[in-house]
Amino acid sequence: MSKFDRLSQAQAVVQAAEHREFFLNDARLPLVVEVDPDLDLGHWVTQHKPRLRRQLSEYGALLFRGLKRSSFEKVFTGLADQAVDYRGGAAIRSRVDSGTYTASEYPESLDIRLHSEFCYSNDWPMLLFFFCDIAPRDRGQTPIVDNRKVMRLLPDDVVRQFRERGLLYMRGYGYNRTWQRSYETDSRAEVEEICAREGRRCEWRENDQLRTFERREAVARHPGTGEEVWFNFAHGFHISRMDDDIRAALSTSDDDSDEALWPNNVYWGDGEEIDGDVIATVNEIVEEQAVQFDWQEGDLLVVDNMICGHGRRPYSGERRILLKMADSFLQGRTADA
Fold it and tell me: How many structural domains comprise the chain?
């Protein structure tokens, strides 16, 4: 019996000599693509790129299973149009090579709420590639959620407020995510140039601290499918996110202030405070719709960053997930214009 015979025809979406496609859950997220290990994967992905990109737009995420480390770059090159770097991002990451980063280095005991990468910016990568180099033995899943479904299930009055009022993100640089690390430079002038280009206002504070402000829409339209998607991280930035667990995980001294440990916040677009109950409602719907799977070494999760949000569950022990990003939203719009 071949490895592709382990799944029944009823479970498989596609079952061919060189690969099979199937789902792990009733939510049909992600679509799993398992290929024959002897296949020339780079050639296969390039050959099937139009179909795979359509599937990404339809389902939101593809999970390539059982790859070798060298295949990460092949799939990325075959599916992506142009790499995107992470300078100025909100997560704590380290650069592995010119286009590869570690997944968030946020304390492993804490949950990272589901979000779309750079949804707080005026530009964002359309595609994310998460490769499992070392699988966690204890939790550490990367949950994903369909942002289209979130839009449909949120109360109408909540969606209306977010759509009409927009959001003002305030980002500070605390814990071990300094502005130097986030922007990969020691130059204030270079940071100011990057922020000006991205429509972000800088506020330099005492002790060489930086705070930035940017007004963004909370709902976006996917340039490929035309669908409206929930596209913001209010439920992750809001000060109500700060709790005793976060305080205990981040604090190194009794003198640490909440502002230093959690320097971010989000307001309505006009600067008015958002009620914590509204944030709780959003997070509840997002979590209810989230799906997850246990990482296996060699897994490669490719995510349409507008259709799907992603997060991280707490874990202990070793875990190494690598990230590549591709296809700038603004660059794609310019090319289409």
Answer: 2
